[in-house]
Specification:
The chain is mainly α and about 475 residues long. It has one domain. It has 21 helices and no strands. The model has no long low-confidence stretch (mean pLDDT about 85).
């Protein structure tokens, strides 16, 4: 009995958030209740030494500020492009190249959004994917769900810092973890392809659409795995998604000659400024001696999203995009910030590690539970990096104690933690704001649908975890 109270307290924040969302409360209310529950748990059983608080703030406040700036920049770029008609021009071009149905949707889900997310990270891929999907004639709530499904390659988001954190804390090779994560990603890639194709197709065409979704997911799996193995993990998501984009456009049933137009061309150039800036600045700060620490912010999407927006917006009246982006950011930022703070509190107080160790008391049965622990971290923090910072070291220690292959175990953990990013309340709120229309009234349906898809993926990963341990 003496361990019962700490076990209950360690689970209290996550359970509180899930219960609040199940009862239909808004994301902000769920975040506030979860944070309050974490404060209660800290006060009753997981105290944080006062002397440690300054170091915690010094470490985490810059990360929080960067994430919130990235969200602001992504929303501003999206709204600026929409206001200028550039998103509609890009969507028309995609429809002309890839058709009007499932092929165009899968091009966004397995190509454009993963590519953008792999370079920018923090869920900003949806600020590119959702505005394009909104021009395809789909209902707003469907646009929000399909847009979120594009966050299926998050282990490589922002050039894979989350996967690097997992590899470092687990003391396993970074590239090897990337390769195994790519192999296991056949599950989320195929599931997201099937769901997106099903939602985007007419009832009489869903059989063929499902096969298209599976094939698209398999192609993305093969491409990301190959790049991981041959080139390395950081660029694997971006380069793998580029392969998918090229193949979708090459094999599209109709390939028209729709012009991008001036605004569409400027949008492509703006994305080039964003992606090129992140990649080039990242390469320079990595390779040039002495450029470390604060210099890494030169390669942050927090900078280049605003640079790309300013580059595109030359001559465009700034007031309407600024007002709408600010309105959306005010809705999204508090939720995102609170959930990051909740994840930090659980990690630094020891709640996260205690919860994992408690569940590990089930012995080999924990193999099935481990992906759910990882998924809880991704859901609460809305970040693969945050989830791995919370749980990776503990999960690796449990894997070694159970005598299972640590690389495969941690690959399952990594993929599960990353996939729940799309279900985190902060990302749901962002998708709702971007989709507009009826999406705000359908927030609960969107959240429930994404959680249902996530449950399928995590259950499949749990089965894979048990199967891999049996085969060893």
């Amino acid at each position: 009995m003496p361990l019962l109270l700490p076990a209950l307290l360690s689970a209290l924040p996550v359970v509180t958030v899930l219960l609040a969302l199940a009862l239909g409360l808004r994301s902000l209310s769920a975040a506030l209740l979860g944070t309050a529950a974490a404060g209660l748990a800290i006060g009753l059983g997981f105290p944080i030494p006062p002397a440690a608080i300054p170091d915690i703030l010094i470490h985490w406040l810059p990360i929080l500020a960067e994430v919130l700036l990235i969200v602001a920049g992504g929303l501003l770029l999206s709204e600026t492009l929409r206001h200028a008609g550039a998103q509609a021009a890009l969507a028309d071009w995609l429809r002309g190249r890839a058709g009007h149905g499932v092929g165009a949707v899968l091009l966004v889900v397995h190509g454009i959004t993963p590519f953008a997310e792999s370079v920018t990270g923090f869920g900003i891929g949806v600020t590119i994917g959702i505005p394009l999907l909104a021009c395809f004639g789909l209902p707003a709530r469907t646009v929000a769900v399909i847009g979120l499904l594009g966050l299926c390659a998050v282990p490589w988001g922002s050039m894979a810092p989350g996967t690097l954190i997992a590899a470092t804390l687990a003391d396993i090779p970074f590239q090897a973890l990337g390769v195994r994560s790519a192999c296991l990603s056949v599950i989320p890639f195929a599931v997201t392809g099937v769901v997106a194709a099903w939602l985007a197709s007419a009832p009489d065409g869903r059989g063929r659409a499902v096969w298209q979704g599976i094939l698209s997911g398999l192609v993305l799996t093969l491409a990301v795995t190959a790049v991981n193995a041959v080139i390395g993990t950081p660029p694997a998501g971006a380069l793998g998604a580029l392969v998918v984009i090229a193949l979708h456009l090459l094999w599209a049933p109709q390939r028209g000659r729709v012009s991008l137009g001036a605004s569409g061309l400027r949008a492509v150039q703006a994305y080039g400024v964003l992606l090129g800036g992140v990649l080039i600045a990242g390469g320079l700060t990595t390779t040039l001696a002495g450029l470390s620490g604060a210099w890494r912010y030169l390669a942050s999407p927090a900078l280049w999203l605003f640079v790309a927006t300013a580059w595109f917006a030359r001559g465009v009246p700034p007031a309407p995009p600024l007002r709408k982006a600010w309105t959306a950011w005010v809705q999204v930022a508090p939720v995102t910030g609170l959930f990051i703070g909740l994840g930090v509190l659980m990690a630094v107080s020891g709640m996260a590690a205690f919860l994992a160790r408690t569940l590990a008391g089930a012995g080999t049965a924990y193999l099935a539970a481990a992906p759910f622990v990882a998924a809880a971290g991704g859901f609460v923090t809305g970040s693969n990096s945050g989830a791995n910072a919370m749980f990776a070291a503990t999960q690796a220690a449990i894997a070694r104690a159970l005598g299972v292959d640590v690389l495969w175990f941690m690959a399952v953990h990594n993929v599960a933690a990353a996939f729940l990013l799309m279900a985190s309340p902060g990302k749901i709120e962002m998708a709702v704001q971007l989709a507009g229309g009826e999406a705000a009234r359908q927030r609960r349906w969107i959240q429930t649908t994404i959680l249902g898809v996530a449950a399928v993926v995590v259950v499949a990963l749990a089965a894979a975890n048990v199967g891999l341990a049996t085969l060893r």
